[in-house]
């Protein structure tokens, strides 16, 4: 079942097109990654979803119905931006309890547990908080909400690695509860760990959508080879990148569509060991943003 569906969302600011014909859907109980560099159109798309801006054209649907026909559709959404601003004279705990009351959640035991996990001092006023602590207040509030669609826009900005892991844990817990998560980020490894499917946005347009396994056709395979032979011939082959060899070990990347040709050449060498490393999301991403890739 589709929880969120975008149909041809376009947003223009004067002559500038920030988002161009963006379409995708997020299903129930799914983590959907939305990746691209800063300025690619991620935040503009999200602002159209939450109603902060009106799209120039296209339609946003929640649970199969246009949001225009659902005046209260925002009750389904909890949104955390990359730079959270809070009421300066309220404490973090007061802000969290306020949002819990709005969503109808009175589970203070769960609230206390989450505050401990995120290592937040809830008695301090928000004006004293660092960026990371403001982020924690918003994340805790979102995870405690009754919303069935959680939208995170660069959510781990300002968090240390330990808190990032805590965030990842609660994303997966929310997914287990049947909630849907839109995770917008330029941190590719974060999306790779959490997302069931993803969309790559470039200059306001979606250029690929699918599961990571379905995107391998645009990636490269990383090889590590132990051999006494000189593999420079392999390094000169079409589709081979970042070749280097020293002390009897060679490493290189191979375009997915050139793997068969490279392996056919490798079998003529004396190989002590060959290791294939799984393709990374970074490889997919860089293929599209490499100026020489020809992607559009």
Biggest sheet: strands side by side, in what order? 6-7-8-3-9-10
The helix fraction, in percent, is 25-40%
- Mean pLDDT over the full residue set: 90
Number of domains: 2
What is the rounded Rg? 23 Å
The poorly predicted ranges are 291-296
CATH topology of the largest domain: Rossmann fold
CATH class type of the largest domain:
Alpha Beta
Please tally the helical runs, counting DSSP H or I stretches of 4 or more residues: 9
Terminal CA distance reads: 31 Å
- The sequence of SSEs as H and E is EEEHEEEHHHEHEHEEEHEEHEH
The total count of strands amounts to 14
Q: Supply the CATH architecture of the largest domain.
A: 3-Layer(aba) Sandwich
Silhouette = globular
Strand content: 25-35%
CATH superfamily of the largest domain: P-loop containing nucleotide triphosphate hydrolases
What would you call the structural class? alpha/beta
Outline the biggest β-sheet. 6 strands, mixed
GO molecular function, one term: ATP binding
Protein name: ABC-2 type transport system ATP-binding protein
Keywords: ATP-binding, Nucleotide-binding, Transport
Family: Belongs to the ABC transporter superfamily.
How would you portray this structure in words?
This protein is 30% helix and 30% strand. The longest helix has 16 residues. It is α/β, with parallel strands linked by helices and 296 residues long. The chain has a six-stranded mixed sheet with strand order 6-7-8-3-9-10, with helices on both faces. A four-stranded antiparallel sheet has the order 2-1-4-5, covered by helices on one side. Strands 12-13-11-14 form a four-stranded antiparallel sheet. It has two domains: 210 residues, P-loop containing nucleotide triphosphate hydrolases (Rossmann fold, 3-Layer(aba) Sandwich); 59 residues, 2-Layer Sandwich (Alpha-Beta Plaits), CATH 3.30.70. Helix 2 runs parallel beside helix 4. The protein is built from nine helices and 14 strands. This is ABC-2 type transport system ATP-binding protein. Keywords: ATP-binding, Nucleotide-binding, Transport. It holds the Pfam family DrrA1-3_C. It comes from Bhargavaea ginsengi.
């Amino acid at each position: 079942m589709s929880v969120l569906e975008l149909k041809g969302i376009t947003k223009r600011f004067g002559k500038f097109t920030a988002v161009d014909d963006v379409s995708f859907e997020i299903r129930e109980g799914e983590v959907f990654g939305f990746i691209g560099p800063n300025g690619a159109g991620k935040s503009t798309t999200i602002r159209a979803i939450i109603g902060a801006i009106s799209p120039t054209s296209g339609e946003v649907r929640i649970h199969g119905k246009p949001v225009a026909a659902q005046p209260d559709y925002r009750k389904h959404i909890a949104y955390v931006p990359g730079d959270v601003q809070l009421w300066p004279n309220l404490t973090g705990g007061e802000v969290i309890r306020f949002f819990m009351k709005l969503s109808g959640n009175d589970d203070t035991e769960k609230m206390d547990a989450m505050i401990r996990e995120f290592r937040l001092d809830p008695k301090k006023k928000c004006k004293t908080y660092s960026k990371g602590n403001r982020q924690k207040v918003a994340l805790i509030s979102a995870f405690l909400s009754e919303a069935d669609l959680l939208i995170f826009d660069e959510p781990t900005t300002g968090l240390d690695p330990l808190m990032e892991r805590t965030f990842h844990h609660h994303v997966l817990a929310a997914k287990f509860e049947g909630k849907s998560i839109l995770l917008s980020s330029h941190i590719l490894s974060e999306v790779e760990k959490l997302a069931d499917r993803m969309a790559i946005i470039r200059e306001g347009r979606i250029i690929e959508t699918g599961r990571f396994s379905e995107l391998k056709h645009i990636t490269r395979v990383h090889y590590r080879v132990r051999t006494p032979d000189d593999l420079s011939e392999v390094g000169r082959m079409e589709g081979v990148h970042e070749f280097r060899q020293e002390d009897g070990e060679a490493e290189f990347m191979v375009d997915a569509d050139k793997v068969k040709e490279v392996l056919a050449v490798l079998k003529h060498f004396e190989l002590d060991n060959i290791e294939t490393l799984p393709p990374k999301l970074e490889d997919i991403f860089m293929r599209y943003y490499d100026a020489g890739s020809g992607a559009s």
